[in-house]
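We close this part of the discussion by returning to an individual protein. The encoding preserves chain order, so positions in sequence and tokens coincide. The sequence in question and its structure tokens are set out directly beneath this paragraph:

===
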Amino acid sequence: MAPVAIERRALRPNDVLLDVMYCGVCHSDIHAINSDWGKTNYPCVPGHEAVGKVIAIGSAVTKFRVGDIGGVGCMVDSCGTCEQCLQDREQSCVNATTFTYDAPDKVSGGYTYGGYSDKMVVAEHFVIRIPPGMDLAAAAPLLCAGVTTFSPIRHWQVKPGQRVGVVGLGGLGHMAVKLAVAQHARVTVFTTSPGKLADANRLGAEDAVLWTEAAAMTKLTNQFDLIISTVPEAYDMQPFIQALKVDATMVNVGALGTLEGGISGMGLAFGRKSLAGSMIGGIAETQEVIDYCNARNIKADVEVIRPDQINLAFDRVTKKDVRYRFVIDMAASKI
């Protein structure tokens, strides 16, 4: 990663100009710059957890005024007319969602640039209202890590007293714990890092297990109503399928490449268990998680860095050396 000059489009009537203040570092950013999910178009400007001050608005904007705080998550455009968009699921737009970076830009041509930048120009529909008084650095990760884990908790209707497993305790995982605990679920964290066992309890989990220990996993057979997998790489999911109750679901929100084989079809069939996927959430749901967390003082655990520390931060994320989300203070680049 190195500094580069980019151009933003002139404001259209429905556009908002944000002076970016903070942007979270998602593991997806590392996958993108490494072309792990297909060839990346360089130069690539990552960042889909951006929070900034509104410094200008188009003539037709009604959602924001100059001086408001807005957030930009994982997408900046969609067709707005297909079945998915009309049901507030813009992330699944039939005519192709425009993601916040390295996606074909249907307005300006070329490819979109993300939030590791001084300013962003985004259509008002895709800018999230950040309530006054929120901790802005801690709010930034809610725009991806928050909604990505909030959405399955909502969709699978987690109820008080149910057992929820969270696989992986990183940027997504720690938010999954906090949000499931807020629903009064009984949460168990599965991790490969012994140093995170105590931290899982601090975050509100009832239990924490090293999933490399076969005996510990066997004891949890048929115990969980929902398991959320936040691990960003493929791994053997069969032990977690076994941990599901009858009719329960394991939902993958982390590994977006090819998953590993070995899942027992018979085990799925006899337990009527499900392996599902979920990706972020729509704009309405992203606003919902921001408001939900604001009302309950739920924050991401963040470590704030300067822009010149991004490469070091990427190395540390890869080594699982962050508790639990790096957030770039973009204002530090303007001093």
About this structure: The chain has a mean pLDDT of 96. DSSP finds eleven helices and 15 strands in the chain. Residues 130 and 178 are 19 Å apart (CA to CA).
